[in-house]
Q: What sequence folds into this?
């Protein structure tokens, strides 16, 4: 199977996200990097792209240059990854989609609901793939959880409880550290801090596993470090289309929690929980039965769980390969085999609607509000 | 040290709570059972008390008979435990306090806030001990947590997150089982189901460890099994007097969770978590440091943690001995050494105020309400 | 059911073992303390016994005095517990058995194999109960494990792997601390250090769960702190009567392990593991199936597991109540309902034979030796 | 930094090991696949190599053809991976080393000690890198463990206890399954079954972390499934050059253990444990202190732990990226920066000596034997 051509925007030297995407794209051999505009500093970006094996003529100084240079080529990228600062996602993603490229956009896909709706419309109009990097949803045992819900193994889902809480912003004396501060500054982060950063992963996961959408929500935001303008801790109660009750807690001041992203799903005939720090297990309890440890690689898992695992049972696979699984889904989709599990623009839009709804609710003392984007109401 | 005399009301043969109290009272040799009215069926109660070693003349048919028989005796009980159905707690506790007995009342102490205030007043007036069986607060490592907060080891407490969620009422086909059904029937359970049953343990724990009181709250209640009139799942956001943000989730439909009571506390300079299924550890993370496993029995623990532990480090002590710790505190208090950790009538009253506040908030779509009893506002 | 009379020898004030036995005997109300010789210092022993509620005439200065005083009484103890220093177990146990008392002896039951055989003979001749306090075997989920093996749920047992390793003697600078030093001094501890102290609990557990006996063994002993004459670390390979392969590791220098006693059993059709720090679970995996978490209190457990548990599923019960379970078994046995799970003199003898066999093997560079007492060959 | 050229022998379509090596080599962009002889069936091998992007002229039918075709090229592979059946490792590795290629050989490097010594001599003579894929040693927290031992953080190492035990060969009815049977058939597997397969990973790990070598050992082998000629369970006691006591258990019939590879190291001033199923943590206890959870990505780790980690703290990295870390070390070594952590031919030789020593000891009822290869005595 021929390798696909891949281009990348952002993810320059020293960024955390760049290596994750490169490893994700390269690990399984589906893609080769052919073009890039990797840095907001043109020269550094060009030089770095060449060190990564891109030929000089396709190592660009910025994304507009790359768009101009690549759009007419026969060997242009089959996929472009957008891993730039949040405020630029909309513009770049839209431009590349309109030029006929498939795009994988980092989250958040946009900053406003209107922009999100625009991306959904553009993707639909052009017929191009617009994926969003909700990479946790690509862990094999998350796919297994979703498949079990879809198969009805848990009956109607009554309740989903999720958290994404860490303590890495818990040091008040660190509040002036620019790498932390911007998260809580509306001028740079927009309307929401921790909920927009981590909470939307958890909210997406709830929808993804339950195969349902958030309809209404009520939020309680807190800035537990008083100097912060945006929330560093949030609780969001929600309801989903099929009646499921949802609870979501997200925090960046939960000192001692490292990567505290987990989800519990409870239905009429069973429940399970999954945690990002031990992603290769799904802990399942059938109603009236014993708790069972399901393992990546065990016999009888769903097709996605099998397809997106590389090594034998109990050999752990971690975060970078969850990102790689997104690229596997993309490669398949580009080659003509769409994967329903791949998060698309609609998911990015729903997240943005939920962020704005949560902000509105929190400002109104927890009033319940509609969490859906207007175009999906 | 001479043994103390103990009387018991309720906790008849076949009840779960009776053995827990007997073991708690007897285990450390502080008390001997001298009188009892153990069953609402007078003959069974008298017979059972005698089988437990109570002399016939002090094996009573009901609590009024016991009150009449015991109040004038020189060797009357130093402590009376009230472990009867919830609706009778107020009346019995009040009567025994007024007659000059020390009382340990099962939770909930009363059904209404007014009754709770009455008990507080009576206890104050008589000078007698009125304790409430918030037994989880008597685990050694819970006392240690409280001591660390009091000592300022975590700095100001920003956030407390607690849950008490199990799945033992998750079977809808079991909804007609009388042992389950009454919990969700207002005629029998009062205004609240799961929150009044389990949630108040978690709320008490938050106050207990943080050494602070809940002032306002906002609640989201759900009956995830539709036939239930009262909630089987609740989320309560709250604020405490010193500004701490609180999150409390309680559920009885969380299939796969067995005894899912845990608490996480996050302050300016550290955080910790404790879970009732592994009660002998406290998981502590200082700001900027590594997570540490603190063990019951390790060197340097607070006086209460040392005093309320019986065997060496890593030899687990469980739930029945947490109840026994309440009796240790009571024995000390009766003998003239009051223990600040012992939950008293004020704690029982605050729980009742919080239940009624949560019900009011849930009915008003999560509106924030005052959670304090009027007498403490 | 009338309470039984109980007497205690040893376990004086400040000892660790005394409170564990008192709690064990009293917790469930089966016994009342009526006589005691609690301390090698006569006056302290008498005074302490009286503080524990023993009448002055039955608070003895030493065990010979107690034997003389109690043997002729109508209300003499139904059970005498021997919790004195190891070197005195044989003499006291033998004397009380011969005088017609039932005895619970702390481990090790004797110091030599010959003494062990003598106790077995005396117990047989007198028809009295001689139990040994292998208290770990009385945890509900250990009984469940044994019942599953007996029922054939795991098929033939191929392999048992157990360890009892802690790090509490890992500080070489502590080697002169008398509380530690005696363990490794042949003059005080006999032929073996760590294996005789902790290893025999693990070896008993292997026999107990597998319902089989150790026949041969090969040992590797090490004094990892060079100043020690006796081993502080030992590995013992063994074979059992039905062909099971055994592996036992015990250490007192395993810094970081607290109460590291666990066992894994593997048969033809399944395996399980149990650990003393989480004693309320049994982790079970059927061949070809998923690992399941079995919980104390779940439906369908064996009669012993149900009988020896006091509180609901997932409410932990710990070490002191495992000791109490030994007393429950004793109370039943005394009342005429013998409990096969109660460890008897034969188990104490087999441990002693295994200790001496392991010492011989270790001295002979791991040569395989017969581990059975002569009388059972 | 220019990519390196990489060739592969073995690891054909459908093998488990091929994808692991490809992901390992490609993930970080250090290597590109330029030549291959991937299958013992020439046509399938050539076709598969081309599907993986190798040009037709460098897609070979067997390794001799590849050696002939590549040895004279300017752009010949900088590294050749040997992932063929065990019995061919020696011959292929030797040939490529002699032709001046760097080689990464799958374990076991050879079948005999003599062959192992020959490889060591050839590697030395040619100056080429001969690495062996002890990939577990490339986990960041394993490198951290080794660094802490080297820095003396644990003092002199008294004791190392390791196991590599799974239950995937526990089904006796599966004993005729060719994928299982060959392991226990001397005609195909050589002198040892489970110890040679998994045990040597554990033994290597002990040496690796302790920075020491096994000198003598005593083994107890068992075929718990009687039809097996080679052992499916083994216990090996050993001693290391600096006096450390070692205990190693390996089993393939431990039903319920999945990937049960773990190690505990105990020194004078602390201990730690690491487990392959949770490879991103190192559980560390300083003497007299609390157990601490060390996390990949935390501040202050050793250079190797930092260099070989790709994503932030608590984002798990798993088995395939441990293999990738071996390739990172190889890339650095090839580029002139040798990495001491990279396992070399000497390690492969020592493993083979240990296997033969263990077999000899087991046959001699556990007699202690020299475990060193003659050339290192």
A:
């Amino acid at each position: 199977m021929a390798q696909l051509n891949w281009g990348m925007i952002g993810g320059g030297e020293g960024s955390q996200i760049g290596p994750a995407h490169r490893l994700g794209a390269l690990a399984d051999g589906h893609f080769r990097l052919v073009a890039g505009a990797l840095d907001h500093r043109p020269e550094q970006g060009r030089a770095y792209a060449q060190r990564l094996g891109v030929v000089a003529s396709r190592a660009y100084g910025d994304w507009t240059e790359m768009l101009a240079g690549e759009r007419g080529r026969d060997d242009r990228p089959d996929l472009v990854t957008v891993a730039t600062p949040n405020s630029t996602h909309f513009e770049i993603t839209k431009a590349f989609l309109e030029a006929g490229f498939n795009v994988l956009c980092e989250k958040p896909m946009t900053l406003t609901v209107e922009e999100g709706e625009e991306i959904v419309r553009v993707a639909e109009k052009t017929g191009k793939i617009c994926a969003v990097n909700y990479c946790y949803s690509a862990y094999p045992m998350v796919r297994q959880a979703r498949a079990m819900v879809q198969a009805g193994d848990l009956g109607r889902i009554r309740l989903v409880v999720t958290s994404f809480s860490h303590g890495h912003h818990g040091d008040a004396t660190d509040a002036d550290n620019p790498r932390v501060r911007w998260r809580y500054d509306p001028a740079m982060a927009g309307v929401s801090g921790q909920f927009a950063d981590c909470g939307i992963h958890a909210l997406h996961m709830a929808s993804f596993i339950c195969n349902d959408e958030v309809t209404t929500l009520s939020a309680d935001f807190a800035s537990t470090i008083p100097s912060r303008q945006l929330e560093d801790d949030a609780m969001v109660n929600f309801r989903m289309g099929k009646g499921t009750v949802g609870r979501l807690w997200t925090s960046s001041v939960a000192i001692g929690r490292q990567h505290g992203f987990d989800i519990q799903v409870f239905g009429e005939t069973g429940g399970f929980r999954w945690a990002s720090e031990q992603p290769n297990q799904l802990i399942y309890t059938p109603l009236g039965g014993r708790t069972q440890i399901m393992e990546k690689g065990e016999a009888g898992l769903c097709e996605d769980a099998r397809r997106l695992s590389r090594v034998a049972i109990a050999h752990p696979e971690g975060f970078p390969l969850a990102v790689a699984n997104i690229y596997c889904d993309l490669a398949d989709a580009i080659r003509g085999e769409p994967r329903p599990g791949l998060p698309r623009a609609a998911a990015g839009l729903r997240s943005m609607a939920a962020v704005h709804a949560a902000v509105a609710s929190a400002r109104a003392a927890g009033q319940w509000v509609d969490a859906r984007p207007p175009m999906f109401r």
